[in-house]
Amino acid sequence: MSKLADRYQSALVTGASTGLGRAMAEMLLEEGVRVWGTAREPARLPVRTGFTAVALDLDSDASVSAAFAMADRGAGGLDLLVNNAGYGLFGGFAERDFAGWQRQLDAMLVRTLRLSHLALPGMLARNRGAVVNVSSLAAEFPLPFMSGYNVVKSGLAAFSESLMMEVAKTGIIVIDFRPGDYRTGFNQTMQTASEKHLAPELPRAVRQQRAWTVLEANLRTAPPPARAAADLRRALVRHRSGTVRSGTFFQARLAPLLAPLVPQRLRRAVAARYFGCF
Ligand SMILES: NC(=O)c1ccc[n+]([C@@H]2O[C@H](COP(=O)([O-])OP(=O)(O)OC[C@H]3O[C@@H](n4cnc5c(N)ncnc54)[C@H](OP(=O)(O)O)[C@@H]3O)[C@@H](O)[C@H]2O)c1
Fold first, then answer.
1. Looking at residue 188, which CATH number applies to its domain?
2. Which residue among 31, 85, 152, 233 has the highest number of C-beta atoms inside a 10 angstrom radius?
């Protein structure tokens, strides 16, 4: 199959203003797919033929319903939903306000599920379509001081597995897309989202700072988002439900292959040392 548009005529891509979502939207446009792309502030979205800007704020139920209705109506029934929008929240679980964790789970897990709940009935009725949930390798390798994020991404991965069984033997596929580190503005947004940190003299604050330094270094040297978009394209061409890991050879291939062979306690110790949390 040369062009994805032979299979998918229309797509809703959440979080298309920057980073992975923007690269995925551009890839789909190049393939001839009409894209409805979202941002909280639509002025941040590109102006391109085939692209329609949609306002979506995952902090609001009403915004989710309105964004989906606009895209689905415009497309005459969406063929592809890419649940990509998201953000990180960094800090000790106990030290951050619980409201912040709750807001992250509501936005990135509950309302992301809501978008799939809105999209699937139409896809089932037409017996064609694809749902892509952008989770993360954090579902397999949780990150320190990002407890809410790890929960969201593991939840999305489990949700995708459930859907894969439910849509088996239909014309619909579900992809759990798990990126490793990619060079996007993700960490900048995460840092500014921080509400409060521990006093710097506390040992936990030192460990937190060390972990942040590793996270920053990893993203700075990570591959560009276009690589994730190319991996998604290949998965959509393959048109098979499943988990797709995307990133460097070490993160996306070697580590997932070797990790199950290592006892959990040892894995945790290695991760703690790697992130400076010992
Ligand atoms: N970069 C990585 O290394 C990496 C690794 C694994 C997984 N991921 C996942 O990939 C996805 C995209 O991340 P990225 O790295 O591309 O980050 P990014 O450059 O910061 O882009 C995040 C996108 O999500 C949107 N967004 C953020 N919060 C939102 C909210 N409350 N409501 C609606 N939209 C919101 C942003 O739109 P506006 O701010 O314009 O509204 C933006 O378009 C995320 O789900 C992330 O968890 C990223």
1. 3.40.50.720
2. 152
Give the span between the Cα atoms of 107 and 151, in whole angstroms: 12
Q: What is the mean pLDDT of residues 56-85?
A: 98
Structural Rg of the chain based on CA atoms = 19
pLDDT tens digit string along 103-137? 999 999 999 999 999 999 999 999 999 999 999 99
Residue listed under structure tokens 């896809």 = 123
Sheet containing 34-39: give its strands across. 51-55, 34-39, 10-13, 80-83, 129-134, 172-179, 242-246
Structural domain total, the chain: 1
Residue to substitute in 17, 81, 191 for testing ligand 1 pocket (most ligand atoms within 8 angstroms of CB): 17
In the chain, beta strands by DSSP E: 10-13, 34-39, 51-55, 80-83, 129-134, 172-179, 242-246
Provide the residue range defining the domain that includes 100.
Answer: 4-274
Q: Which of 8, 87, 149, 182 is catalytic?
A: 149
Is 274 labeled as catalytic in the residue annotation? no
For ligand 1, atom 29, which residue shows the shortest CA distance? 86
CA of 190 to the centre of ligand 1 (A): 10
| Start-to-end CA span in the chain (Å) | 50
Percent over 90 (pLDDT), the chain? 90
Report whether pLDDT(69) > 50.
Answer: yes
Helix (H, G, I), strand (E, B) or coil at 215: helix
Ligand 1-lining residues (CB < 6 angstroms): 15-21, 39-41, 44, 56-59, 84-87, 107, 134, 136, 179, 181-182, 184-186, 189, 219
pLDDT at 195: 45
Tokens of 221: 């040297």
